[in-house]
Amino acid sequence: MATTSAGILLYRLTTDGGVSVLVAHMGGPYWASKDEDAWSIVKGEFEAASEAALDAAKREFGEELGLEPPAADYAELGTFAYSSGKRVTVFVADGTGFDTDGATFGEFEMEWPPRSGRTASFPEVDRVEWVALARARDLIVKGQRPALDRLEELMGDLRAETAR
Prior knowledge:
This is NUDIX domain-containing protein. Helices cover 24% and strands 35% of the residues. It has helices spanning 53-65, 133-139, 145-163; strands spanning 4-13, 19-26, 39-40, 42-45, 75-81, 87-94, 107-111, 119-123, 125-132.
């Protein structure tokens, strides 16, 4: 069965009328020297039979960043499938005013170096940043780019309604 994940994509409007999003750089030795295609929406796995996707997204946000997700109105942006078959349900909310100071990243353990028999601990995320939506497309892993496209589409619709 395909892995299911849920995540939160916070956005905020910039002073120049653009949009920035909160993305997290994946932790661990594999991602340490990578930048492009090494960032992610803050997300994690869950069991759909026992937990609602939004509840899982909020839980994972807290676990990965050590910060409570903002009290905001969350909307389901969609469920997006990776080429591997993994599916991620993304929720979006206005993150204006959300401060990442004080973030403490959750950790995972893995054998490192490979085939050494030793276990090492690494952060799930090693940094989190607000970046312009266009820049996020270069940074975020390929399977999550459709979520950025969907957000951009919705923001365009919102701007069109506001202009009327």
